[in-house]
Structures are given as C-alpha cells and as structure tokens.
Amino acid sequence: MNIILATHNRGKIEEFKRILLDYPVNLSSVFDYGITLEPEETGVTFSENAQIKLDYYLKIIKKNKLHDNSNKNLLIAEDSGIEIEALNGEPGILSARYGGEGLNSMDRNDLVLKNMQGVASKNRKARFVCCIKVVDIEIDFKYEFIGYSEGMIMDNIYGSKGFGYDPIFKPLGYNVSMASLQPEVKDKISHRGLATRKLIKELLDAR
Ligand code: IMP
Question: Which is the catalytic residue, given 55, 79, 107, 187?
Fold first, then answer.
C-alpha cells in the first residue's frame, strides 16, 4: 500500500514516518512528487481545513496521474494545532499562523507565554488536536480520524525535540515538556500518534 502525505511540514512528515515504521506501507509526501503549492486554509474547523488540503492535492495527483496504479494508493491530509483554554481555544486552527506570518515557532511560543502571563497553573489547560482525512485515490472513499493530547501550558520553554508548540506543552501525566520526551514517547501519547493508529486499525480491519 502506498501512502502519500499531503503536507510540506517536515515535523509532521518525520512523525508519520516514525509512527508508520512497523506497518507495511510505502510512505511519501507531496514533496516527492515535486508539488510545492499549498492551498489556502479557509476552513473554520480542523476537519474543514484537512478536507481542503485533501481535495486540493487529490486534484493535482489525479490530474497529473502521479500515483502508481499497480498498488492501493491512499492520500492523507492532516490539520492540527493547539487549543488553550485560557486563550478561549486559541491559537486553534490558526496555530501555524498565530501572531502573524513573520513569526517562527519560538516567537509563537514566546507570544503564547506572554499572553498567558499571570495565569495560574490550574487554568493553564491545553490540548493538541489532530484531524486526519484519508482518501483512497482510485475509489474516492474518504475517512476521518481525530486524536487529542491533553496537557497544560508551562511557564517557559523547555526541551529541544519535536516542533511547534512542543517546548511549552506539558502532557498530562508527565513532568516535562513534549519537547523533552523521546520521540517514541511523544508518538505514543500525541494527537498525531493516536489519530494515525485509529487510521491503521481501520485499514487493517478493512482488509
Ligand atoms: P497546520 O499545518 O495548519 O496543520 O499547522 C499545524 C500547526 O500546529 C503547526 O505548525 C504547529 O505550530 C502546531 N502543531 C501541530 N501539531 C503539533 C505537534 O505535534 N507539536 C507541536 N506543535 C504542533
């Protein structure tokens, strides 16, 4: 089975590769097909944005006949982000763009910490959300899987692994940031790991 990841985010690609390592799949991303364009994320939910990405890349792949017809081909699109209770659910679907286009991940972490200054520990709840949409390229059959990872926003930046908001997020049941955990531990508890394992279970059960 071939799986094409509809993303240009290196952090996500690396995680999908690790999570799917033990499964019989050939994994590639839109990078490998020379596709550099990205759709505008105009949806108002994770699900809508994942659907926009799925439809956008599906059209390009079909139009240019990029997939290998001799095998089953799945296209996977993912939209994810962090919802922070004290910020009324922000950054949410705007996680990649929080604070504006000119910022990098560390600037965004600093901005969250600044906006959370003075918020007591008990009110620092947050969760990562991952919505995965999958389509079988030949038969247009679509599925959706959602994963959540609960935790809280820390008081500072800790750790250097992972990507995005990992350095300021402390997962429930751990005393360190997501960016301090070994990657395999993150995969076990992450929103992406959970949603991907739901997807794999569905695929294996359907065989
Ligand atoms: P998307 O490309 O619109 O789905 O952007 C998702 C954004 O959410 C990323 O750019 C990160 O800022 C954030 N994000 C999603 N998943 C993670 C994660 O596993 N760790 C840290 N940040 C994440």
Answer: 79
